[in-house]
Amino acid sequence: MKDAFGLPQSLLVLGGTSEIALATARRLIARRTRTVWLAGRPTPALESAAADLRALGADVRTVAFDALDPASHESALGKVFAEGDIDLVLLAFGVLGDQARDERDPVAAVRVAQTNYTGAVSAGLVAARALQSQGHGSLVVLSSVAAERARRANFIYGSSKAGLDAFAQGLGDALHGTGVHVMVVRPGFVRTRMTAGLEEAPLATTPEEVAAAVELGLRRRSETVWVPGVLRVVMSGLRHLPRGLFRRLPV
């Protein structure tokens, strides 16, 4: 169960090699979390991530999970929940894609959408049902500021995150009053392996800063978290710009 400050004793990460998720796990282990499940494709990177968290004193286990195989999600996550209650599920998997390439290759574009949206819908519903069955817990969904308005530079990725964001908000409304808390996290540009080599956007942040915002959001039982917080104001302005003007912006 969560402690008096709303922090979890047990954590399930969907996307077990995500740098943001691992930064969050490290932060939570330093506070209260003692049991961690890392769900992802069986790779040396997943095992290395588990070993690093074990060195911090947590009981860490891995489970095979593939976002692109929704038919397996109920079985994979069922193994985790069968071992005991989970206080926090962190849905952290996703791909950025390559906008220029993906525009020319619809199959590649669909893979981005299937990973970021379809896979997340499946895993999110399975996790939500399990949390609801146990009567408590939080589902934290890593969205993006890109979900707020599609930009020419990354509209395939942005549209997939927009779908995920809307889904997570609706799921939070559906679960209101059940004991299950859903929190949507919208980071801006985060310095990770996924964004390496890209031109850094203004107000760039780090996995550790996102992790700190997630912790604070859990303590407050927030429904939406922006990282950094000023992006809430920035994106509100961009969202309401006339489309003709928005097209002229260097975004």
From TrEMBL:
Alphabetical UniProt keywords:
Oxidoreductase
Q: Does the keyword Oxidoreductase apply?
A: yes
Source species taxonomy: Bacteria, Bacillati, Actinomycetota, Actinomycetes, Kitasatosporales
Q: Specify the protein name.
A: Decaprenylphospho-beta-D-erythro-pentofuranosid-2-ulose 2-reductase
Cited PROSITE patterns: ADH_SHORT (PS00061)
Please give the Gene3D superfamilies that the UniProt record associates with this protein: NAD(P)-binding Rossmann-like Domain
Task: Please name one Pfam family that this protein belongs to.
Answer: adh_short
Signal peptide range equals none
Family membership:
Belongs to the short-chain dehydrogenases/reductases (SDR) family.
Instruction: List the EC numbers from the record.
Output: 1.1.1.333
Q: Please give one Gene Ontology molecular function term for this protein.
A: oxidoreductase activity
Which top-level group of life is the source organism from? Bacteria
- Matching NCBIfam families: PRK07904.1
